[in-house]
Amino acid sequence: MKITRITAHRVELPLVEGAYHWSGGKSVSVFDSTIVCVETDSGIVGYSEVCPLGPFYLPAYAEGVRAGLCELGPHLIGLDPRELGVLNHRMDAALKGHAYVKTGIDVACWDILGKATGLPVCTLMGGRFGESVRLYRAISQVAPDAMAANVASYRQQGYTRFQLKVGGDPDTDIVRIRAARSVLQPTDRLVADANTGWTQHEAMRVVRAVADLDVYIEQPCATYEECLAVRRNTTAPFVLDENIDGIDMLLRAKADLAMDVVNLKISKLGGLTKAKQARDLCVSMGIAMTLEDSWGGDITTAAIAHLAHSTPEAFRFTSTDFNSYVTVSNADGAPQRENGFMRASDEPGLGITPKWDVLGPCVLEVAKSK
Ligand SMILES: [Mg+2]
């Protein structure tokens, strides 16, 4: 089997809540998502979705997905999409970095491998653990009482894990964390995710001020060293996200005992092949994970479900159903949240079919090899 053509479509995903706000005053109201189609000489087509959280979260941006595919695509025409090791080796040789661009190709090729073998991606990634995957809800940064009300409202919908977007003014963030925790039950989990927004001294003040609460602290500061300093001065369970962008940083953080949980995002790492490598390493090293992506709709949610469902339950801290945050459905067959949980499809590949009437026209085509 050979890759014959790579195309992409652009789709806008408005947010149900109108906007999503996080640290440093950053926000997005309509996501710009790219749906990638990898065609083969067998007639099988694989699909994927890449959707950066705006241009200011990770080193990624929406137009960069499309530009990167035009650069990378010609190197991949003629390769066997089922040989994911060879494919990733070729991608890394042809384009340095740009993990999010490679994600578009890699995930679509997992979809092809699943369709070619008649197996769901989660079976190919190690097998299905348990009946369903527990989800968290991200709580957009607004006033403390409004955030607590949103936590209570999403709890009514079945969620038991909440990720509070802090990383703003530290005094207000302390109020936010206290207000949110006060509406939860002892068995619920609350994560205060500062998304790199605090300086080290601000983070130190916040962790001391909420030391009596059952709360996880996620990525308080911009650099790994600042986070490590905060980690060494708190007993709160600690999550690293933005700084852990590959195996090198994962191993370094393990050696430094820098985290209890790590946030693995598919497009931050470069696709399902590299997410699986990091995931399997975390299981071997005893580190629990939030398994998700930067953002997306139905196709991203399907990929997350396959990665999460093939992870042993003890190491699955949370995952995300991004398709419930946006008003546009871009594919049929994606997981749908049920009482705070979702499950990976039993159909071959990702188990999704793009909704062509929702996707915009084809915005790029790569059909010739370099
Ligand atoms: Mg995070």
Features:
370 residues; 12 helices; binds magnesium ion; TIM Barrel; alpha/beta; 2 domains; four-stranded antiparallel sheet; eight-stranded parallel sheet; Enolase-like, domain 1
Number of helices: 12
β-strand amount: 15-25%
The tally of beta strands, per DSSP, is: 18
- In CATH, the topology of the largest domain is named TIM Barrel
Q: End-to-end distance, in Å?
A: 19 Å
Give the structural class.
alpha/beta
Q: What's the story with the biggest beta sheet? A: 8 strands, parallel
Give me the Rg, rounded.
20 Å
CATH class category of the largest domain: Alpha Beta
CATH architecture heading of the largest domain: Alpha-Beta Barrel
Which strand order do you get reading across the main beta sheet? 7-8-9-10-11-12-13-14
Task: Return the string of H and E elements.
Answer: EEEEEHHHHEEHEHEHEHEHEHHEHEEEEE
Mean residue pLDDT:
97
**Proportion of residues in helical segments:** 25-40%
State the shape.
globular
EC number: 5.1.1.-
GO biological process, one term: peptide metabolic process
Enzyme class: isomerase
Keywords: Isomerase, Magnesium, Metal-binding
